[in-house]
Amino acid sequence: MARQSDPATPDPARLDAADPLARFRGRFALPDGVIYLDGNSLGALPRATAARVARVVEEEWGRDLIGGWTRHGWIDLPLRLGDKVARLIGAAPGEVAVADSTSVNLFKLLAGALRLRPGRRVILSERDNFPTDLYIAEGLAALLGGGHAVRLVETDEIAGAIDGETAVVLLTHVNYRTGRMHDMAALTRAAHEAGALMLWDLAHSAGALPVALGACDADLAVGCGYKYLNGGPGAPAFLYVARRLQEGFRSPLAGWLGHAAPFAFETGYRPGGGIARALAGTPPILSMAALEVGVDLALEADIGAVRAKSMALGELFRERVEAGCAGMGVTLASPRDPDQRGSQICFAHAEGYAVVQALIARGVIGDFRAPDIMRFGFAPLYLRYADVVQAAEALREVLATRAWDRPEFKTRAAVT
Amino acid sequence: MARQSDPATPDPARLDAADPLARFRGRFALPDGVIYLDGNSLGALPRATAARVARVVEEEWGRDLIGGWTRHGWIDLPLRLGDKVARLIGAAPGEVAVADSTSVNLFKLLAGALRLRPGRRVILSERDNFPTDLYIAEGLAALLGGGHAVRLVETDEIAGAIDGETAVVLLTHVNYRTGRMHDMAALTRAAHEAGALMLWDLAHSAGALPVALGACDADLAVGCGYKYLNGGPGAPAFLYVARRLQEGFRSPLAGWLGHAAPFAFETGYRPGGGIARALAGTPPILSMAALEVGVDLALEADIGAVRAKSMALGELFRERVEAGCAGMGVTLASPRDPDQRGSQICFAHAEGYAVVQALIARGVIGDFRAPDIMRFGFAPLYLRYADVVQAAEALREVLATRAWDRPEFKTRAAVT
Which residues 66-125 of chain B have a CB within 8 Å of chain A? Predict the structure, then answer.
């Protein structure tokens, strides 16, 4: 550990002492002995969540029963919580709703986009986009038939590939595997210049870095509640439709909660005003309530400070790994420039799967993405500089001692 | 209260003492001073739910973080819980999944049905079906265009209206407003004779009465987790696809969880085996866990005894109301024959809205459905015979004293 006292590299203890976000760590219930570098997959538990969920279960539901829908504002949660998420992603009040899963919301927005650009039948995306997003797009194109198609291009070909056939460009802001971040303003502009709409998946952005949907003139967006928003396993997702598009937007999932008068039980469907028309069925209140705690916590932090710390954590980890693991078969798989990546760093290693398992056995939790990517996420609200230094040292040790070379680390479970 | 000791009518105390389901009431956390006749809208809180949800939050999520997906079987919940629901609705293991909302599931199954009956473009339903179901069907038809249509007929015309254009017949087993129950076997047979598929909405059936999807040869079904399954506000819904149809079934919502290898992050979508292919996005685990407690409780009860008690409660309530409120403008709006209705009784009254509010102010919670329906649901697991007698007496009092005739009971909130 001599490296830690090397004057040429920053001292993690000093960095932690000076961290303006340090106080947030105590707001999470983190297990002992664990360095959690997987908050980009499932965020940690805010301390306030258990009491909030217990209150919803025992008082709001148990005591007030059906009255809870109005008395405790359950019915308003999708839009009320949406307005809070809006502040994290540079959207205006009334532009965001919390509902359903990212997949379902993506389906709604892609179908809505095709309707807003009649005559154009192509959904353009990149080959390296998150597979689920592509599955949903393909599923929609297959359902619609009639020449609707998903066109996939390489990352550096996107801007040039948007043409008069393109109804909507679908991109994930921060790549799930490499952490590479798109230029939201430039690509949105390119889409608009070709007459297409731009749909951003903010799964790895919301809560981790500043997003400026409004300033970038973005049209549509979806995102995830259980990563950097710390909403809990399978927390509901969110969707954004720019106000200027809402009047013409129609959701293909015309459920009761998106109706103009949800409680009137009218015979025909009339879309609700504003973003409400993007809602479908009854929201899962327990999961929504847990998500609200995570979102409230994220709103307490200055997102500029979050981004600054995220970049500093990433750089510190990269430097320590590249120095400590030199010659051990580890290659940086993320952009070297921290401005070009989100809140994660990935390294490729031929035995990446086993290495990640060996790290987990030591309490350093990252994850693996095929074919060879070891992924380490940095959630600045609960991660310390000392943690990433310790994680880098654990990685060095695992590689130096070949601790990964054991059968139990190499057997891939059916589910990982 | 002389009526209670009238030897010609049953004594509720004696009925409660002899009730084989009486022990279940203690398994629910019911508030004092409330007679809850709205379990058909939002079921009551099982006592075991709070501890189960707390464990999921604090231990499974808080301590085990991302490991919870495998260690605590979150990833299996949609199908594991589906197999439990299957036992309540006469389906086989592997035919039911718990996921999303009823609206979203209905969309999946209707789209899947149209694909299974190529060339047929009509969704047939009844004018009096639950409006949301019709909205979803209309939304799908509008999305698909090309002659796809929703055709609505009167209830007694359904069987005769199924023709060679009909891809799928969509009916709610128990009508949300009148409680009238369809003959599942006969209508399924009629659909099949015309070459159409049959899709049942079991929102008001599952957990309240025996359902025999398999024995009726039903093709598709959806249902609700927050009514008689007591899963909590907005609990996830379920869907059923008969095994013989699963191979040809495709969900339009081709999300990652329905993929044959959800964790392989393959480029193209391959539908999973069996009912798994009807899944889409990540399930909301807190809400799923709460639902499991309700379903487990429902499985402890003999569904035949549940149905027998439900009918007895309904008959007792109907008799007491018709005797006590004679000449007070109350008309039975449900079938008189208990064999032809689900687990609710509805009465029409010109001032029904205000009457229901006056009852709620007295702690008797039913609900109102436009234009004039007072709806009273009977959840046999936690309702006593004494409760329904007391509720009938409260209704008599409210009507006899015109207690409903106060401004605060007549002002309709925007949300009711």
Answer: 66-70, 74-75, 100-104, 107, 111
